[in-house]
Amino acid sequence: MSNSNSSSNGTKQPALRVIPLGGLHEIGKNTCVFEFGDDIMLVDAGLAFPSDGMHGVNVVMPDTSYLKENQQRIRGMIVTHGHEDHIGGIAHHLKNFNIPVIHGPRLALSLLTGKMEEAGVMDRTVLKTIAPRDVVKVGQHFSVEFIRNTHSMADSFSLAITTPVGTVIFTGDFKFDHTPVDGEHFDLARMSHYGEQGVLCLFSDSTNAEVPGFCPPERSVFPNLDRHISQAEGRVIITTFASSIHRVSMILELAIKNGRKVGLLGRSMLNVIAKSRELGYMRAPDELFVPIKQIRDLPDRETLLLMTGSQGEPLAALSRISRGDHPQVQVKSSDTIIFSASPIPGNTISVVNTIDKLMMLGAKVVYGKGEGIHVSGHGCQEDHKLMLALTKPKFFVPVHGEHRMLVCHSKTAQSMGVPADNILIIDNGDVVELTADSIRRGDPVKAGIELLDASRNGIVDARVLKERQQLAEDGMITLLAAISTDGVMAAPPRVNLRGVVTTADARKLSIWAEREITWVLENRWKQLCRHTGGQAPDVDWVGVQREVELGLQRRLRRELQVEPLITCLVQPAPAGTPAYKGRTDAEPDSRPASRGRGGRPVDRQPRGERPERAPQPQRQLATVGATATASATASTAVATPASAAAPVAEPEIAGRTRRRRSAAVG
Ligand SMILES: [Zn+2]
Ligand SMILES: [Zn+2]
Hints:
Bound molecules: zinc ion
Shape: globular
Strand content: 15-25%
């Protein structure tokens, strides 16, 4: 096969470009760009959840610089189904760029509407509901047919995307479930129709590419859940994904069958069930549901609580119950607690911790693969083979999966006769260029992640994340240095430790800090201080602070093997303030080091050499001349400044948080 998109006469054919910005080498934040000529069409825009160490990060979004730069070319978006990893990013992106129209299934758009209202971006797009087999046109070059598929979420679709170079099948999330809970069957006829016509390329869900066999049907969990519920002597507590509409439907059906009323806990559980019932995706009588405050009055034997927390999310209902800090529900030893979900990779530890806590409270906990109380919504190897058999693609790109899953899926495709040369394993930001007879990898576009805090407005950038990791692992050192505008240390530095485990005490650290300050004053002052002709020189206090921080950081890493976050605050004193002469007491440090104002620490790097560590971006911590707004943190961190001679400006630490937030909103 030809690996270039140049035809035999050498002229460059226009190519279809497919660019996943998320969803590859991971499960989550699926966001895919289709591009032909001047048209850009988006397929889904999801979010992912933070991994360990992403302190204070609420959600993870793909970097959308490429879309921001090309926003005038965006003609529309297609949504395959309503899972968070496919629609969770849309409201956020709409704050940055408009999307002329979003076509999607009713349930997904209904869930999306809620998110868009919350974000205040309803005017940034037009939502158009599609029905099975609807064909929509996006821009000049794309025409998309929605093909009903089966998945853990109701109202889910695969896409047949017809372009000038051929038809691409984009499976979306799928499994082949021939006995779907809602009776909506996979439209196999339509899929094979495209297979007959000729499919240029298949982009297929790889989540369960490592798992042999067919994925069991959703219905198969029904008898197992039924057994546990009917055998329960006390309350039944079940947790599952709120978005697993079919699972929730079965649980409600089982509650009725077993004579139990249902109490719902967790915002997403209440929200998804309300939306699904309203739109007819879930049928349950009103009287089945009892508000959580009243359900306590019913006998335990007639109670079923359905809640969020299947992933051990710290703020979800079941996690709070396991910690004993839920206002309405406490665990009883007669409770049967059922985990009808399996942990997403990365959540395993929090899930098993939650299970342990619930067991320690005396409850019977039902969980794990052997119980048959959970099946995946994603097809396994045999499902993948069936998809390949139906579509008979010329080219193949495995998507929606971690790297090993993509590799596994490509092997399945090869076993079905797709030549290895016709398969591309790509990463986020890679560009798949397709012509009628070729597939190749184009130059990648910018891709990466954007981390959002709980407000979903504040962006947690790499520096903030690094600082939080330092705080979490090694604590924080605050250092107050009184320095006069003529470059004299006016008082001994004050050092305060928070969460730092070290053999060095504050006094020792204070001596080290003194050395760093002395060194900076003697070796860097000229560069940091400009005489502009006025009375007082213009001092780069932020630069002074940064130099001291870097020096102390190096020393701590070397001497104590710790890397706490160091914040140096300079308290400027007026010129002429008497110099503090340095300590005369015994040096607790075993290293020989010169003292006082004459020398610099012997272990310091030679003058002029850059520090070994990449300097951090400037921290605008101290604002010279700022009004006194020191927060409680600052006042514990700094003791009384020694420079009593003149009014000195209070270091402004409270401004830091404000600055960060305002800088992040956009
Ligand atoms: Zn899904
Ligand atoms: Zn998905």
